[in-house]
TrEMBL record:
The active site is at H257, D308. GO terms for cellular component: cytosol. GO terms for molecular function: citrate synthase activity. InterPro entries: 2-MeCitrate/Citrate_synth_II (IPR011278), Citrate_synth-like_lrg_a-sub (IPR016142), Citrate_synth-like_sm_a-sub (IPR016143), Citrate_synthase (IPR002020), Citrate_synthase_AS (IPR019810), Citrate_synthase_bac-typ (IPR024176), Citrate_synthase_sf (IPR036969). This is Citrate synthase. It comes from Caldibacillus debilis GB1. GO terms for biological process: carbohydrate metabolic process; tricarboxylic acid cycle. The keyword Transferase applies. Signal peptide: none annotated. The keyword rRNA processing does not apply. It comes from the Bacteria. It catalyses: oxaloacetate + acetyl-CoA + H2O = citrate + CoA + H(+).
Length: 372
């Protein structure tokens, strides 16, 4: 049997959603650089779900559809209030809340194309409301109702802070959402596809995807990056801190990638944003510490930063709590998960690989009383 550890190099699906070829990332053929510079997140969601860019009116209608579906049921707000909030990681809260939300969806187990699309709309629209509501509830504040007149990025920041964000923050956050929206067969998307390939439902698919994203080798890395930056604290401390980690063969969070060999094309956009935003907030040290880490890790290991590395200082500069970084990744990647779930249903076959058995050979069963 040929085993590919961690399924490295294995092509496990065909997809027309996003591609990584020669270190270039495209969504439906559109270069991520173009989309990051120009597109609204809602436009990208439409692109991933419909495989074409929306026309002007279609985009307006789609934005309206998401905005109208953003409120979450009162039962869910009460449920969020019942969590042991101070102890709960927001990704655990999100995983539970999204699953709970499915209980209130009359179409949860309806498998028509239309019902599945409607569920996708509801999930995409409501996930920022859930994350923002949880963040406020655990601080003893009431959740803020979503607004219909704000775009997706602005609405999230508004619901989080209870005040309208400025244009710089909205543009930066929109760009971060665009950059995280889809990424071919990453671990959480693969998880979602494995789940729904059993013909399980959309809520189960995204709940399992959130669970996979939570881990620090995947989406959880962005929170760990910020933890590292805080521990380092100053540019002078970078050198001894990083060299010690490398000497101990510890991984540096926010570096490396299974697929990219010469660097993650998303990282440069976040790096630029990090430089700008850390200056604007009067805390350029987070960018300076980050670039110093980058110079050491690339010189010593030749491993470039990935999407998670500079997103940490970007989100920190936007005033976002550090344990919300991964939920924000989930808010964006929800669009990709849903695109892949819908695509999987369109051309489904059970995903069931094999394992190479490496345990003991034939053994003889010994009765319990004779086992000594
Ligand atoms: N720091 C130090 N060494 C590293 C790192 C790192 N971040 N990443 C890989 N290496 C080394 C690793 O130690 C190994 O060295 P050796 O061959 O000497 O044992 C070699 O590179 C190959 O590493 P691997 O873990 O086998 O590579 P992989 O393809 O299985 O893992 C990865 C990819 C992203 C899990 C890994 O690079 C990593 O753990 N990075 C840190 C966590 C992280 O930033 N995750 C976010 C990934 S990108 C966006 C996302 O999915 O959220």
């Amino acid at each position: 049997m040929n085993t590919a550890r961690g399924l490295e190099g294995v092509v496990a699906a065909t997809s027309s959603i996003s591609s990584i070829i020669d270190d270039k990332l495209t969504y439906v053929g559109y270069d991520i650089d173009d989309l990051a510079e120009n597109a609204l997140f809602e436009e990208v969601v439409f692109l991933l779900w419909h495989r074409r860019l929306p026309k002007k009116q279609e985009l307006e209608d789609f934005k309206k559809l998401l905005a109208e579906n953003a409120p979450i049921p009162k039962e869910l707000i009460d449920h969020l209030k019942s969590y042991p909030n101070q102890k709960v990681h927001p990704m655990a809260a999100l995983r539970t809340a999204v699953s709970f939300l499915g209980l209130f969806d009359d179409e949860a187990d309806v498998f028509t194309k239309e019902a599945n699309y409607n569920k996708a709309v509801r999930l995409q629209a409501k996930i920022p409301t859930i994350v923002a509501a949880f963040s406020r509830i655990r601080k003893g504040l009431e959740p803020v109702e979503p607004r219909k007149d704000l775009n997706f990025a602005a609405n999230f920041l508004y619901m989080l802070n209870g005040e309208e964000p400025d244009q710089v923050a909205v543009e930066a956050f929109n760009k971060a959402l665009v950059l995280h929206a889809d990424h071919e067969l990453n671990a959480s998307t693969f998880t979602a596809r494995v789940c729904v390939a059993t013909l399980s439902d959309v809520y189960s698919g995204v709940t399992s995807a959130i669970s996979a994203l939570k881990g620090p080798l995947h989406g959880g890395a962005n929170e760990q990056v910020m933890k590292m930056l805080m521990e380092i604290g100053s540019v002078e401390n970078v050198e001894p801190y990083i060299r010690k980690k490398l000497a101990n063969k510890e991984k540096i969070m926010g570096f490396g990638h299974r697929v990219y060999r010469n660097g993650d094309p998303r990282a440069k956009h976040l790096k630029k944003m990090s430089e700008k935003l850390t200056k604007l907030t009067g805390e350029p040290k987070w960018y300076d510490i980050s670039t110093k880490i980058e110079s050491i890790v690339t010189a010593e290991k030749n491993i470039p930063p990935n999407v998670d590395f500079y997103s940490a200082s970007v989100y920190h500069s936007l005033g976002i709590e550090h344990d919300l970084f991964t939920p924000i990744f989930a808010i964006s990647r929800m669009s990709g998960w849903l695109a892949h779930i819908l695509e999987q249903y369109e051309n489904n076959r059970l995903i069931r690989p094999r394992a190479e058995y490496v345990g003991p050979g034939k053994q003889t069963y010994v009765k319990l009383e004779d086992r000594g």
